[in-house]
Design brief:
With 242 residues, the chain is mainly alpha-helical. The chain has two domains: 161 residues, Ribonuclease iii, N-terminal Endonuclease Domain, Chain A (Orthogonal Bundle); 75 residues, Double Stranded RNA Binding Domain (2-Layer Sandwich), CATH 3.30.160.20. It is built from eleven helices and three strands; from the N terminus they run H-H-H-H-H-H-H-H-H-H-E-E-E-H. The protein has a three-stranded antiparallel β-sheet with strand order 1-2-3. The longest helix is centred in the middle third of the chain and has 26 residues.
Length: 242
Amino acid sequence: MMTEERLAALKDFERLLSCRFEDISILDNALTHRSFVNEKAGIGCCDNERLEFLGDAILGLCISDMLMREFPDYMEGQLSKLRASVVNEQSLAELARRFGVGNYLLLGKGEEISGGREKNSLLANTFEAIIAAIYLDCGFNETLLMVRKLFSPLIKEGAQELTYRDYKTIVQELAQNRFRDTPHYTLIGEYGPDHDKIFEMELTLGSIITTLGLGKSKKEAEQQAAKKVLEILKAEAPSKDS
């Protein structure tokens, strides 16, 4: 039987989630760590590991759905990298902390002493279990709405970082998939004093495209040249589809 104190804590957590459960015992299950169950074997409670398994799959589906809709031009490799940059132990643990998940966990004494309420791995796993609890009690649409609300800012931020970091990777994939060719980078020149050099790199893609990029390092110059190639290809895309 759930104590009145535990029920009050779960109701408080419901308000933080902005999600009302018909069966609040599912939320209780999501917040129950294996260490607690091991120490309380006689009371017949279950840990959250099965919910964690389910939540991982649901979260992956929701994020994949969001990325497919938000980035229709991204290839599979780009989508996978962006999903991995958004859904990982660190990001899930940070979201768990935002909702104060650690305050509502049921932990065994050993896990409590070792600082389990602040462990990234434990918090991330619990957050996945919570996602599963929402899905089981409230349905997929409600779960998707919550995931969109929580992860849209992370996806936007991740896309910006990934795009800059992966200009060269994207060009490499495009060159192989669309043109069956390999991009080539050539140093054209170095300008300025040694302590403040500017490098100029040329990117050639067969006989189709040639671009130049400037940067304070060869790698930065290559990224800028690759960015220009992507801008050219993006500008050409409408005429190819028409």
